[in-house]
């Protein structure tokens, strides 16, 4: 693996970004994430129903590593709604420093419809994006929106040289040929959400997909061509898609199976010259490449099988396999566990699933690097070669 390779990783994002530290600590210019909003529903196959403290711990563990990955002039943007916004702000003040809070960006969701509009309350009409840096020396490319016809009409005066201008004060004029447009403020009401873009070419069918124009603005403002961009809640792959088209290097991490069915094909389409999203605006013609890899599952396989189990009989069979594997928490005495015991039978089916997940050794969710050469884990020679190249051990 080369330093310039774009990278898509499937696996637990906490473990994945931890594995990035050896190679990428202090090298990431921009992080954008769109984490679970903790809304109390599970519409996009993620645990989106934590209590506040659990959600904050979930975020804290990841944001602390994210800070270590950022360059000294780097930036991080976290998109969120009102459920956890204020808790997240306090957490990010603690991790990144209150003086490194730059802005709360308001992204206006025009034409809100569907389940959001059914609530018997004010309809939520925006998302927030918290923007932080890790120092006062951060990269920022001030960006402007074009003038509207009405705004251009205000440049109605003409000086002796034929230059159009508008009067700001008695002493000051703003000339049209010097004006760059309207500076972008922290309320973004000019980027349509998918609730209003009915026939958007870039639609993937992913429920919480964000438009490429939204991500491209963040990338344009807070990075330069060739910079490294990271998204460890990759979702439908929008950040990777946009970074690829805009000439940035990128790393995307996603633990759900749709990374293979949705993200990888999407990026292949980008390489082949996909014309959705921002492609026409930037005259995208295709090209480039990316490397796809997965954290090698161990107990994670059992976690996923337990989560997808539909009946107690299946759970019992899984328990038998788990006992044989030996990959059980050291705090658990397997001889004392009887799936048919009366106390276990008082559990609901979901409680039984959580119980069997809890007894797994969480340090063995994936194969550890130090165990790679152990024959028990059956790591192929090709995977060993790639892993060593990833950690620059060859």
Describe the structure.
The structure is a single chain. Helix 1 packs parallel to helix 2 (52-69) and helix 2 (52-69) packs parallel to helix 3 (85-96). It is built from 13 helices and 14 strands. The strands form three sheets. The protein has a nine-stranded mixed beta sheet with strand order 11-4-5-3-2-12-13-1-14, sandwiched between helices. It has 394 residues and is an alpha/beta fold. It is elongated and about 95 Å long.
The name CATH uses for the topology of the largest domain is Rossmann fold
Low-confidence stretches: 42-46
Number of domains: 3
Mean pLDDT: 88
Number of helices: 13
Query: What is the CATH class of the largest domain?
Result: Alpha Beta
Question: Main beta sheet: strand number and arrangement?
Answer: 9 strands, mixed
What are the secondary-structure elements, in order, as H or E? EHEHEHEEEHEEEEEHEHEHHEHHHHH
State the helical fraction. Answer: 25-40%
Radius of gyration: 25 Å
The number of strands is 14
The backbone outline, from C-alpha atoms, is: elongated
Helix and strand content put the structural class at alpha/beta
**Roughly what fraction of the amino acids lie in strands?**
15-25%
Query: What is the straight-line distance between the termini?
Result: 10 Å
Oligomer: single chain
CATH superfamily of the largest domain: Vaccinia Virus protein VP39
Descriptive terms for the model:
single chain, 394 residues, alpha/beta, Rossmann fold, 3 domains, nine-stranded mixed beta sheet, three-stranded antiparallel beta sheet, 13 helices
